[in-house]
Amino acid sequence: MVYSDKAKSYFGETLNQIQSQGLFKEERFICSPQAASIDVEYPQGAPQKKVLNFCANNYLGLSSHPEVVQAAREGLDTRGYGLSSVRFICGTQDIHRTLEQKLSEFLGTEDTILFASCMDANAGVFDVVLDKEDAMIADRLVHASIVDGMRLCKAQLFNYKHSNMAHLEEKLRESQECRFRLIITDGVFSMDGDIAKLDEICNLAEKYDAMVLVDDSHSTGFMGKHGRGTHEHCGVLGRIDLITTTLGKALGGASGGCVSGRKELVELCRQRARPYLFSNTIPPVIVAAAIKVIELISKTTDRRDKLEANTLYFRKEMTQRGFDIREGVHPIAPIMLYNAKLAQDMARDLYAEGIYVIGFAFPVVPQGQARIRVQLSAAHEREDIDKAIAAFTKIGQKYNILGKKKDEIIKLYGL
Ligand SMILES: *Cc1c(COP(=O)(O)O)cnc(C)c1O
Fold it and tell me: Which of these CATH numbers, 3.40.640.10, 3.40.1650.10, 3.30.420.310, 3.40.50.300, describes 66-299?
């Protein structure tokens, strides 16, 4: 027998360990489209419950927008369901080129190449751009997909302490002998919602003759005055050499990603990026809908403006009510609770109150930094946010944490 008893018990035991460490991820079934208000079956088999969703990456509320859905339908009708090919054989339609051009215009870059996901974009890009004699200099908190992409690349790896510019400069000095150097960072870091210091990073890059890559998955579509991303927010448009980002968050939330930036680097990805060459093209439905998304957000900044207003409102009100929120301006608003069980218990009670949020603990965040990560959306109306604030206040009172700072919460609940 191929799947032996030994194998079965080994893998079963691994699953038990995951469970006993409290790391088992249970999935919750949503029985409606993604939106501010969703129907959820949780736990499995329980009757459906209507809850306000505060944990999606649906930043602009476009995941189920009628015009986006309609564009997807038209894409299906006019270009079919699938292409049964990679891009370079017979998987490129006119609309793929259109979407790439529109993304370049929106991001303010020279050229763009689509991938099946940003995970794929990150898996492909480093190995294409860099070789043994080069260096990758990455923030220590970059996204897992960048970590994996860097593993697939032969260039020498340097890490700098999270957003620590002095340490980055040290690494730039250390790597001076390398042929090309690429500074690598997330635009926004997903657990704290903090923004990379792109202006300082670009200055250092220029001083030390390095290139810059930013993964802007948590910013594209809404950060910056026109929503172009953190490069717009930080005033460094045109100074970022490579941007990787996703269509799976603010830009409609289906799937897909891209590498956008210097013309030669993008073209080289078309020739050599392995996830591009050896994985299927993005389906026309998604491409057509994504083109509509870019049109919608290029025409008006209403959605990103509303998201910004929602974010400021929630952060201000929650702070006034005595919650300990990581400071910032991003719609990721981490409510710090420090203790893992407290974060889980509060998230469960909030769910009972009709507010869907998730508690995050180690190893997703550092030990002793458990939190509930709230994510605001342009799909939220003021009354939705008020309901969330009221529920948080009620549950915060129950656990006696309002007005308490880190030390006091830890004194009550431990770490
Ligand atoms: C979500 C995310 C990704 C993955 O995007 P997909 O398109 O879903 O693969 C990559 N990088 C960062 C920083 C992300 O937040």
Answer: 3.40.640.10
